């Protein structure tokens, strides 16, 4: 945007104008209304501790629930593991007792086979009644005889005799072992069993007596380890899972989940949008592992209610806080809004705006300060108007000074004299120069002109003066080309040249010279008007420079000059020789600032130089 357009912008336009590339979230936050800033900060300060408190409460509550649940499931796992070990030990005890009994039967050489068969069947049936959890017992003796408490196994006797179970027990060495459930020959539809096998050896001679298989109902084991919120699974050494058949709970339907429980290292698992706490316990003696998972959502029954209460209370508190902060912010910022609107009116030029706050707080004091500033600005504006009027008066006085009747009369006398001497060409040239001079110095409404035009005015003036005082002085103009476009108040150099002629050269006994020079000096332009006339006494020079350097009113300068300097080259200061110099210095300061102006350098009987400083490129 160009400067001239920017200067025409209103206060609101300048507030909304932002150069491209400078808009950002941080700047947007800085430009936010105080009401929103106050509300945002207050809400953040209040809500952050509340949110932190809620988060910490839920965190510590959940941690306590986790610790309690973990402790409970670990205890349950231990109990389940002990219970399963007890049931399995029951089966092992049964196998050991049967081994002793069978040893006595087969070591008795006098016992008939029929009697032995009856005793074996009887002992198997008695053991089935004595030991809980056992559903059937099968014994295959060394002669291949097949005994079973469940008649359904007799048709499958051949397959059982040659199954992997029998072959696997050959190297068992008389220990009771858990058989692989994946190849169980005793499995029947709807009656899956877990089998303990034992290679029966004589306790006396150590000879082979047969193979004993004790079958336990798998559902019986699983049912003993279930609860409403916890689920327990048995895995054998091969990773095969034993689960309850026909279970109605969805947890048993997810085969992928059940298979992953044994190998996962995670403590918490997710299933169907619910969280489960997992725990494991190994039954080393039987190469089995118990895995339990507890539903934390069901375990923590009061957790949902607690969260609901906390979140509801927090939300209600937050809403009340926002409403109260909003009203508080409006109460605080309403006077600021009045200040803002009034300041905009003042910025637009309405100096009649006054604030009438009854409060004595910061905003009330700020309103009174605004009133004071507005009054001061109004006074300053009046002062500026007065200064502008004075500037016009200086210019008018300067023009009137330049259009001196005696200068015009003398020039006309020269023209008449030349005509009477039949020197019409010279008369015409003088007339033409006089016309050019007044055309350049008086025409046009602009107050500031280029140095190039100002030099043309000086050139016309000096040409007229050399026609009148041709034998009294010569002149030289040396202006650097790079300052020709710089600006200068019109009719600045002419009064200085006139002073050089009438008060420097005219009173000199011989012929004099006037030099007008200009150059670029850093950020300024330096113009000089130099003559080799009679100069100025040192005392008068000091007083002149002192007055030129002060920024007092013109009337004050006149009176001070008349009273202190006693400079009365002609009639008075105002109508006398130095009026042009004072008006030039004053106009330069008014137009360009106090750092610019004029000063005099002079040596008595050697000459005088007046130095003008102006801004470069204005």
UniProtKB/TrEMBL annotation:
Q: Which UniProt keywords apply?
A: Kinase, Membrane, Phosphoprotein, Transferase, Transmembrane, Transmembrane helix, Two-component regulatory system
What this protein catalyses is:
ATP + protein L-histidine = ADP + protein N-phospho-L-histidine
Q: Which PROSITE patterns match?
A: HAMP
Q: Which Gene3D superfamilies match?
A: 6.10.340.10, Histidine kinase-like ATPase, C-terminal domain (3.30.565.10)
Recorded hits in InterPro entries, A to Z, give:
Bact_2-comp_sensor_kinase, HAMP_dom, HATPase_C_sf, HATPase_dom, Sig_transdc_His_kin-like_C, Sig_transdc_His_kin_internal
- Show the GO cellular component annotation of the record: membrane
Q: Which molecular-function annotation in GO is an example for this chain?
A: phosphorelay sensor kinase activity
Chain ranges of the HAMP domain: 330-382
- Read off the Pfam families from this record: HAMP, HATPase_c, His_kinase
Subcellular location, in the record's words?
Answer: Membrane
Q: Does the keyword Transmembrane helix apply?
A: yes
PANTHER family, A to Z: SENSOR HISTIDINE KINASE YPDA
Name-wise, this protein is: histidine kinase
The opening ranks of the lineage are: Bacteria, Bacillati, Bacillota, Clostridia, Lachnospirales
